[in-house]
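Chapter summary example.
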Amino acid sequence: MAYWLVKSEPSVWSWDQQVAKGAKGEAWTGVRNFTARQNLVNMKKGDKAFFYHSNEGKEIVGIAEIIKEAYPDPTDKTGKFVCVDIKADKPLKTPVTMAAIKAEKKLADMALVKYSRLSVQPVTAEEWKLVCKMGGV
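The structure predicted for these 137 residues follows.
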């Protein structure tokens, strides 16, 4: 299993909206960056992803699961981009803020810190364990 982080502005798509979709999940559409696109292509069914509220909140609020691997994004008229389907797995007991992540020396190399604009990012197993611990799960 691999670990990822997906970003969404809560005013556009929030953790609560993701949870409301239940077991059928929702397509993670609208990614228009080629590095993020490649990360979507690399996702496998069963992988886990942190759900990060960007801009508003700037915090990891939950864990999602990839339930369908990459397929053509129906919102992309160019045909160049893909999406995956994700479902909410569980919320973090305590959201992990960007400030808390930046304060943790062991997370200094985390993609979220180094590539703050990238909407879909890989997370190492060590980073995953530490952020889960920080979030109380």
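To summarize the output: The mean pLDDT is 96.
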